[in-house]
Amino acid sequence: MNIIVCIKQVPDTTNVRIDPETNTLIRAGVQSIINPFDAYAIEEGVRLKEKFGGTVTIVTMGPPQAEEALREAISLGADEAVLVSDRAFAGSDTWATSYTLSKAIQKIGQFDLIICGKQAIDGDTAQVGPGISAHLDIPQITYVKKIEDVKLDGAHRHMRAEKMTEEGYEIIESPLPCLITVVKEINEPRLPSLKGKMRAKKIEIKKILAKDLDVDPGLLGLNGSPTKVVRIFTPPPRKGGQMLEGEAKEICGKLVELLKCEIP
Amino acid sequence: MDYLLTEEQVMIRDLARQIAQEKIKPLAAKYDAEGIFPWDIIKIMSDSDLCGIYIEEKYGGTGGGAMELVLATEELSRACGGISLAFAATALGTYPIILFGTDEQKKKYLPDIAKGKKLAAFGLTEAGAGSDAGAIATTAEKKGDYYILNGTKQWITNGGEAETYTVVASVDRSKGARGAAAFIVEKGMKGFEFGKKEDKMGIRASATRELVFTDCKIPKENLLGKEGMGFIVAMKTFDQSRPGVAAQAVGIAQGALDLTIEYMKQRKQFGKSITSFQGLQFMLADMATEIEASRALVYACARMLDSGNPKVGKESAMAKLFASDTAMKVTTDCVQLFGGYGYMRDYPIEKFMRDAKITQIYEGTNQIQRGIIANHVIKESVSK
């Protein structure tokens, strides 16, 4: 089973602060990590490989330092790593990113399954995974919390998965190849292994530039991005609430009066 | 301090640290209170290839030595000195095979230990033979293709949990220490049973049991080295393993100091953080310096071992002595710095003091270590 796992390197938002003057992230001193949801995608890919054989190829689009995230993924059991990196890709929104990644995946070659984390913790859009499947014109199952069955031989190659919903879950079957995005309920990512770390240190990371891809240059980077960021701002902090005290009946009266004042 | 570790040693240290901080630390208090053996941690270490870091590649390990072992033991002990012991005591039980095993014995026993599928243990101590190891009463009588073991080993770390045991018994009691031999005994062999699990002051996540041999038949292929070499096997094993105990002590001391500094930063008295009081700052400075000195001694000794230098008896004893005395002193001072809170079980620091104590006692009491060191320095002065 040949699996492609798409990951993103993100700032560790547990430590991130916003500059109140410019309303942008203070990146200095903030560690970069593999997007936590993508760690579940890597683990699921490695587990499927251990069960069915084949390879796990990790792909990321990002600046050159995203190579660190790829090496970490290798230490966790992946086989190959591809960095999609070029100045031409700078400023890509989710549309341009998923377009570029879909082209890079076509370039990488034959695959049975693409796995993405459900969303990245920096942008929180959850659009790139589904975007890739749309550009590649393959089926998608989002928010997968369990892979129930995979059938790789015969005419009807397929997989069946549990998709998490707010009420419970749906069981969805899809032909292969397809793309899934995974939630954290799907597994518990392992720690790296020593042999994995040694491999990660030595492995050659394949690089894909814009010129290596069969793409329309007008659809790349900032120019290819339909999304325009008009303004970024930090929402004003909430004001503290008001506590009403006294008997229930009395409080109800006060509350109604207050609500009347609030609603014009 | 920069110890100029190799790339691979840095990886081992970082991996052990990650396991310790992410997986062991959250469980340490529970495993200590309930005396749970850390099989789940062994599984994680096995998946991370840490179980074979001191075993040759051709027997399934990653080919490191004493330095790799002390780095991992120190990091694991920083989170819990009891949980780390399942790993460190396996090394103690494995060294006799590494040092004295034949190729067949190594092929048979080392790969499963390197993979973390099996743990090992070392059985020397008896009720009447502690520091005076020559007084062992367990016997091994040769009958045809077998040795028949009879006797009881006491306080054996990993007892009952390990699959592979190296046991020292006497083949000829009239010869005293020269009549001893070492054997590999497998759990499940007929006539090999375990006594009750001991209730200990510290290292409570570690299992300590008696090994009871009643007409236990051991195939003669399981003899390690030759008859009469039992004590040489034990002493050479201890030369290798003492830096491991010393590393456990360094880890316990460092773990206690880490917690103490964190506590002191947030503890306010007289309107300010207690880190601002010079009397307490001096205590911190002394502790940090003594820990670093212990670490330097342990690492130097491990490197000496890895260089193949056979004359490490003195240095190995010095490392064990100094690091364990430091651990006891540091953890006692850490409890002091926590004040009344330090004495309470709700806080994690008293456990470090309980765990530290054993490092002054086992694998040769610190009085025995002083004896070894004194013998060496006196002999050296004579030969000058």
Rg result of chain A: 22 Å
What low-confidence regions of chain A span 5 or more consecutive residues with pLDDT below 50? none
Total count of helical runs of at least 4 residues of chain A: 6
What structural class do the secondary elements of chain A suggest? alpha/beta
Kindly report the CATH topology of the largest domain in chain B.
Butyryl-CoA Dehydrogenase, subunit A, domain 3
Number of strands of chain B: 10
Through-space gap between termini of chain B: 34 Å
Query: Structural class of the helices, strands and pairings of chain B?
Result: alpha+beta
Helix content of chain A: 25-40%
What Rg of chain B do the Cα atoms give?
Answer: 21 Å
At a glance:
Chain A is α/β, with parallel strands linked by helices and 264 residues long.
Description:
The complex is a heterodimer of chains A (264) and B (384). Chain A has 264 residues and is an alpha/beta fold. Chain A has a single domain (2-219), classed as Rossmann fold. Chain A is 28% helix and 25% strand. Chain A has helices at 36-52, 67-75, 94-108, 128-136, 194-202, 248-262; strands spanning 2-7, 9-11, 17-18, 25-26, 32-34, 55-61, 80-84, 113-117, 140-151, 158-164, 169-175, 178-182, 206-208. In chain A, the strands form 3 sheets. Chain A has a 9-stranded mixed beta sheet with strand order 11-10-9-12-8-1-6-7-13, sandwiched between helices. Chain A has a two-stranded antiparallel ribbon with strand order 2-5. In chain A, a hairpin with a 6-residue loop joins strand 9 and strand 10 (158-164). In chain A, helix 3 (94-108) crosses helix 4. Chain A is globular. By secondary structure, chain B is an alpha+beta fold. Chain B has 3 domains: 7-119, Butyryl-Coa Dehydrogenase, subunit A, domain 1, CATH 1.10.540.10; 121-230, Butyryl-CoA Dehydrogenase, subunit A, domain 2, CATH 2.40.110; 235-383, Up-down Bundle (Butyryl-CoA Dehydrogenase, subunit A, domain 3), CATH 1.20.140. In chain B, helix 4 (66-79) runs antiparallel to helix 8 (278-306), helix 5 packs antiparallel against helix 7 (230-266) and helix 9 runs antiparallel to helix 11 (366-383). The A-B interface holds A 190-198, 201 and B 7-8, 11-12, 15, 18-19, 22-23, 44, 47-50, 53, 62.
